[in-house]
Design a protein that fits this description.
- This is 4-diphosphocytidyl-2-C-methyl-D-erythritol kinase.
- It is an enzyme of class 2 (transferase).
- Pathway: Isoprenoid biosynthesis; isopentenyl diphosphate biosynthesis via DXP pathway; isopentenyl diphosphate from 1-deoxy-D-xylulose 5-phosphate: step 3/6.
- This protein has 2 domains: about 160 residues, Ribosomal Protein S5, domain 2 (2-Layer Sandwich), CATH 3.30.230; about 130 residues, 2-Layer Sandwich (Alpha-Beta Plaits), CATH 3.30.70.890.
- It is built from 10 helices and 12 strands.
- The strands form 2 sheets. Strands 1, 2, 3, 4, 5, 6, 8 and 12 form an 8-stranded mixed β-sheet that branches. Strands 9-10-7-11 form a 4-stranded antiparallel β-sheet, with helices on both faces.
- The chain starts with 7 loop residues before the first strand and ends with a strand.
- It binds adenosine-5'-triphosphate.
- The site of adenosine-5'-triphosphate has 21 residues, from helix 1 and helix 2.
């Protein structure tokens, strides 16, 4: 029996765009340090958790759902189990996810589900862990989970999970081209490593401790879309394009139709186009839809995981 007295808790958590992503050299443990500028955007996962004797998950939503596991490997169930183990809670939870963030799209949808589930179970069960401890559990679930918790605009270093908030002004307008296929994050990193090994003679070795460039921080601070368009960068874009050459055509189409710049989001395959205002975003959405791409609009930054009243 829960101690909060609630029948269910509903949490909304956002997807994200990495407006800057630099990947460091492989370290001795075969990991990369990264430097990421995260922006939470207005594509939300809706997660509703209710009391149940065991752990189960049900998934609906507006995006292709076939790649979402429905067993204990679902990151939402892993999040609920982790919180139960940490707090000694002996019951279970039924988790309903309404997905709007593309699956394996490089926008952190699974991470948003995990952050939302942690927050919802904590409220439903009345375990009331301090925020720092919830963030600690978030970190154990995945490098992008703490950001789904905090939202807004943040810089992630280390594995991407050492977060510091970044100053940001205004609202940025995005048009997102969603792909029918997914790209595996480990496969994209492998492709990058292989490229770096193959061309070791011709390219500068990667910085083991990368950082976010000053012009990105300045653009975010100024809320200036043109400045951000010039500063955006993603080290995973070239390997993602190598694995999926069709993404190059998507990038070109967006840039021909008024986008200030396009970038592969995280490990892809979602392509995010930055526009100067809402009108250009609408025009770009129409043009890309006419070319039979599946597109949605989003704005950022938005808040992180939050309980909402039903
Ligand atoms: P990131 O940008 O954080 O690397 P992503 O956006 O590319 O992630 P997600 O959709 O967050 O990808 O996660 C995809 C992988 O996680 C798939 O292998 C999928 O089977 C598995 N997965 C586990 N739980 C979930 C979930 N709740 N939603 C989506 N994918 C999940």
């Amino acid at each position: 029996m829960t101690t909060s007295g609630r029948a269910s808790v509903h949490v909304k958590a956002p997807g994200k765009i990495n407006v800057f992503l630099k990947v460091g050299a492989l370290d001795d443990e075969q990991y990369h340090d990264v430097a990421i500028a995260y922006q939470a955007v207005s594509l939300y996962e809706d997660v509703r958790v209710s009391d149940a004797p065991d752990f189960s998950v049900e998934v609906n939503g507006s995006v292709e759902l076939s790649r979402v596991p429905l067993d204990g490997s679902n990151i939402a169930i892993r999040a609920a189990r982790l919180l139960a183990a940490r707090t000694g809670y002996t019951g279970g939870a039924h988790i309903e996810i309404e997905k709007h963030v593309p699956v394996t799209g490089g926008m952190g949808g699974g991470s948003a589900d995990a952050a939302a589930t942690l927050l919802a179970c904590d409220a439903l069960w009345g375990t009331e862990l301090p925020r720092e401890e919830l963030l600690d559990l978030a970190r154990k679930l995945g490098a992008d989970v703490p950001f789904a918790f905090t939202g807004g605009t943040a810089i992630g270093t280390g594995r991407g999970d050492e977060l510091s908030p970044a100053l940001a002004k205004g609202t940025f307008h995005w048009v997102l081209a969603l792909a029918e296929f997914g790209l595996s994050t480990p496969a994209v990193y492998r492709e990058l490593d292989e490229h770096r090994t193959r061309h070791a003679q011709d390219i500068y070795p990667a910085d083991p401790r990368p950082s976010v460039e000053a012009n990105v921080l300045q653009a975010l601070r100024a809320g200036d879309a043109h400045m951000l368009a010039d500063a955006m960068h993603n080290d995973l874009q070239a390997p993602a394009l190598h694995l999926e050459p069709s993404l190059a055509d998507v990038l070109e189409l967006g840039e021909q139709n008024g986008a200030l710049a396009g970038i592969v989001s995280g490990s892809g395959p979602t392509v995010a186009f930055l526009t100067s205002d809402v009108d250009s975003a609408l025009e770009l959405q129409v043009a890309l839809s006419a070319a039979r791409l599946n597109v949605v609009r989003a704005t950022g930054p938005v808040h992180g995981a939050r309980i909402v009243g039903d």
